[in-house]
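Lab notebook page, bench 4
Experiment: in silico fold of construct C2
Operator: M.H.
Input chain length: 334 residues
Purpose: comparison with the prior construct
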Amino acid sequence: MSARLTEWSARNRWIWAAAAVFLLWFALSLVTSSFSLNSLSGVAVSSSFLALCALGQMVVVTSGRGNIDLSIASVMTLSAYLALIVMGGSDARLAQGLAATFALGLGVGLVNALLVVLCRIPAIIATLATGYILATATLLANRAIPGFHVAPTIHFLATGRVGGIPVIVLIALGVTVAISLLLGYTAYGRMLSAVGQNVRAARLAGVRTSLVTASAFVTSSILAAFAGLLLGAYVGGAFLEMGQPYLLQSLGAVVLGGTLIFGGGATPLGTLFGSMLLVLLVTTMQIAGLPPGVQDVVQGIVIITVLALAGGGAVRRSVRRAINAPKGTGYGRT
């Protein structure tokens, strides 16, 4: 029975993040009378913005070779400014605003893909440099912004409710389901997993590895751009460094959700629960009265701990394969 449970949890790594969310919420409900299902709804709203950009980060991480998108924060901030400038607070220019947001995400994703795939610059360096360039563009946009007027339709998507359920939560759930289906039941998902597990083997199997890797960065930037658009509508404007908290948290949600940090195994549902877990963790620290700097330190420690455990598990599996592999297979000595 225990072996079956272990095998099931290994296939469904999201269960640990989900269990942690409900345990932490239950603990908060016991220690404070103000924490209830209604407050959990607020947590779900806050985590929805994080989940949107974290799902894109998850796709990049799944592509393997230590790929991480560090331009997410700058894309979100610039997208919020761009939407305010293009739409001007009117639904009459909604289509232009959505097109500009998509173009921003697509353009940044293609630049990141060009640097990583063609120029062979490590993703962590390439996307960090792209983020710095976008930060400069954000400063220029900050001077050109006409005012803080949000288009009514976008404002409804970010703050409205349908049947008592926040619309932004429904959007996050919809994107999670769509990516789960894409990665779990399509040829593209199998190719992305193959590239993340072993890029050379995937190339020999006929997979266009460069195209698959490039698509991961494009997906991440587009989701970050729309997350920034909705976040700007939720807060009623845009401000410098608006997306900065999502840089560390997007990676943290991916790791806590059970996605393999070395690539090849994504858990979209786990990323959604990982986003909720991080928001609950921040909420807990705020209730405890910890200053923002300490909150960042705690989040960093949690993420490093999970990464260390994941890395140790990967090393142990590699050692077991090397010991158990027959001679001449390439794992052990011949």
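Observations: The longest strand covers residues 161-162. Residues 76 and 132 are 13 Å apart (CA to CA).
Next step: discuss at group meeting.
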